[in-house]
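Just scan my protein:

. . .
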Amino acid sequence: MFSIKRGVGKPVLIVDIGDGSVGVSLVTLGHTPVQVHASTRATLPFEDRTHEQILAAITNLFKDTAEKFLKTYREKGGTAPSAAHVVLRAPWTRFRTARADGAFEKEQTITKDVIARFAKQALAQPSELDRSSILEAGVMQVFLNGYPTGNPLGKHASSISVVAFESDIDPAMKRAITDEVAALLPDRPLSLHSGLRALLIVMQEYLPELQRFFLIDLGSATTACAVVRRDAITQYAAASEGLATILKRVASGGLPEETMSLLRMLATDTCSSSACEALKDSLARAEPDLVRAFGEVFTSLAGVRRLPNATILVAPLELSQWLHGFFSRIDFSQFTTTTQPFIVETLTPEHLRDSVSWGKEGVPDTGIATAAFSVQLMQST
């Protein structure tokens, strides 16, 4: 357990925190694929909580999970991770992009100052983010003469478009996580990142040719829905449905944890009992309510501009297969650009197999894979 080959660099702690679960991993960065030596994910019990109660519960879950994880690592002779990176998803962080375009009278050499000037113009646009709680800001993509350019410095162009990004963070969550990491790993540097930024830069690397897509990111109580065009978020909304609310709909009075176990079996085609058949019926009965809930959000998004057909789904393993079928099968074509159904692809650890490798103690997990690979990409830019 926790064996790390010599000469591959110092391991770091990478954490993925949502609104209902915490993923903790020990990762070596600096080469491809990123190596996840060990990982674990813990989930909150399914019950109704206020925002403040969720914050306290998630903080305690992180503390307990990370303490046990690092204790096992140290008992096996490991030294403290050299740094910690925490990716915080909604509702703990909010993220936006903004775009600024310009044309030059004659072809111009692109410098850092030129890019910075247009990024500043982009981020000067109105925003709902809390200016006192900005977490990160920077450049997401640069287009020269209309084309995305990975290394724009020194190139010549007659026009430029800069997609800039920034995110804010829940101040109480920032304090809580900062304090807990400081107690777990004294004097080790900590970096905090927004979950939506992590997803977008992974998508840039994983599917660079996909210039327009609809992102559906299922959390525990909410689902983030974002339209991405040319690396910029053009529309965003959240649906009040997630893993916990769907479980509540289909549990039929039973324990949500038992329903989760059955969902895992359904996801791996190992469920053939009468309880599994009953669960399939419950999922089918829940569909009309889910269609209404997501339909309302899609209506608000499409009211601004119709949605791309290409859809990337990010969801817990237990529901990913069923949700893939749900969004592919249900007729949401009235919301799409082509008036055709969504073409859904589910992001899984398998998609990132060339970018993230899993050691014997690493449990493949989409959230951890995305967090680890995104941190690698952030450090390389």
Q: What stands out?
A: The first strand starts at residue 12 and ends at 17.
